[in-house]
């Protein structure tokens, strides 16, 4: 990497060689796809990735930890690639491709669903922030990702085959069963209402747990932000992340989804949110324990002491600042709470404790948990 006065530049000859090799690799493919990964952010390559998508015509997916880095209204966007728990019809297109470019991926046990991705190295171009590997062939170093993606887009033949295949197999998703009057609220009904709350003026923060999977299924409107932390699966991360994001982006209204177990780790940050006059909406999902851990490895340690969460926030509020709390047990109460949060109390921190059954989880968590559990419990590999 060449560096002048703190500015990092690509090696020109290496960049040309890498683009030549990658263009040859992709142009001979029948149904190539491109997948965005989380390192695009640090590489400042999100715009270059979109330019590549526009130029190539390829089907475009993102890894789960890159959700929000690629506009979901892009005409060739097919969703989140997350192996067995991908957006519907996305994995089939990615894993059946004869060539795929991954920009800034991180493959760990969580993002690979227990190392169960059906990918082949010889079909892949892996683009990291400062190097490119083409299939089983050479690795080119000293190349900035954004430079490589921008140059590659100018060398590719327009090939929408994979996206056309996606459109052929795509079937619109269904809707959850309608709730009976005063029926206990189901999580899938909750997130149907959440979808309607999103706009270009909102940001979604998803805590480690079932919120990962439910928030991944949200369709982000243009301008809607999205953050979650996958690399370490840090339980309790979202409370502090919500505080920081809301303080930095005061023009946005942050909507956070936090499990009860996670909230207990960092609940005190609510105090700083109130002190700073933040107007975040927090959905505290109270299902009595660490649900994601139950699906990986169950035991009595996953059941936690229940708190009066709204009572705790009221005590922290202590009459200072703008704060509103409510408990929600059914759809009717949820509708009323959302209406209040977005209208009469839109300038307040709004804390909604959503009480749901302990076994009410997404199908994606059930699948993901079983696969990660199998991977984590395997015998050690001496090699």
UniProtKB/TrEMBL annotation:
A Pfam family hit: TPP_enzyme_C
Thiamine pyrophosphate enzyme central domain sequence ranges: 19-137
Gene Ontology cellular-component terms listed: cytosol
EC number, as in UniProt: 4.1.1.1
Gene Ontology MF term list: magnesium ion binding; pyruvate decarboxylase activity; thiamine pyrophosphate binding
Family: Belongs to the TPP enzyme family.
Oligomer and partners: Homotetramer.
The name this protein goes by in its record: pyruvate decarboxylase
Swiss-Prot/TrEMBL catalytic activity: a 2-oxocarboxylate + H(+) = an aldehyde + CO2
Keyword tags: Decarboxylase, Lyase, Magnesium, Metal-binding, Thiamine pyrophosphate
SUPFAM superfamilies named among the record's database cross-references: DHS-like NAD/FAD-binding domain, Thiamin diphosphate-binding fold (THDP-binding)
Top class in the EC scheme: lyase
Cofactors, names only: thiamine diphosphate; a metal cation
Native source organism of the sequence: Solanum verrucosum
Source organism, top-level taxon: Eukaryota
InterPro entries with a match to the protein in the record: DHS-like_NAD/FAD-binding_dom (IPR029035), PDC/IPDC-like (IPR012110), THDP-binding (IPR029061), Thiamin_PyroP_enz_cen_dom (IPR012000), TPP_enzyme_TPP-bd (IPR011766), TPP_PDC_IPDC (IPR047214)
Residue ranges constituting the Thiamine pyrophosphate enzyme TPP-binding domain according to the UniProt record: 229-354
GO BP, one annotated term: aromatic amino acid family catabolic process to alcohol via Ehrlich pathway
